[in-house]
Model the fold of this input.
Amino acid sequence: LAKTTQPISMDSYEGQEVNITCSHNNIATNDYITWYQQFPSQGPRFIIQGYKTKVTNEVASLFIPADRKSSTLSLPRVSLSDTAVYYCLVGPRMNTGFQKLVFGTGTRLLVSP
Amino acid sequence: DAGVIQSPRHEVTEMGQEVTLRCKPISGHDYLFWYRQTMMRGLELLIYFNNNVPIDDSGMPEDRFSAKMPNASFSTLKIQPSEPRDSAVYFCASSLVGSSTDTQYFGPGTRLTVL
Done:
């Protein structure tokens, strides 16, 4: 499994753009990058998944450089409700051979007024 | 869909008692996962099932833990006997292989306290 490294915590203010970078130097060819969000007292929730370049949905964008050794989750114009822990996970798609997802410690984002 | 349903939401028991946690996955999903989350160890995968069959239980801490999935709509995680170090939040998640994003959908969790 590719090991991931992400900042333990980040602080931001409402309305700002937040970028959380995850390093995964030993990512394998068939690995995808997935981000989950977890609010206190809730289970993790899928945010976005990508393989290369850029992926965007209604919640976030995911930027993946050509070498795929890192990725950046971008949250536009955060609000107080975006305060949560964000996990970066790397692994193959389940239909190519499931591997355990390792959630790690995640990045604790605190958004202040 | 109601999402993944777990019961009970909170459980307080005494050391040595049997504890049974329950999970109803999202209808049609073919994978089911049991996780445990603590401050010290984070989120750990305990066991997962594919089409009701246990595939990998290497994350189960010891023989006191057991999990079953008698049908596609129900799974249990049992701890017998329970110990204080089992106190944690236990999450159940389900997924559909072949879906566009491999998303795991998590339930609300069961907060277990063993006194």
In short: Chain A is about 0% helix and 50% strand. The mean pLDDT of chain A is 91. The CA atoms of residues 32 and 93 of chain A lie 7 Å apart.
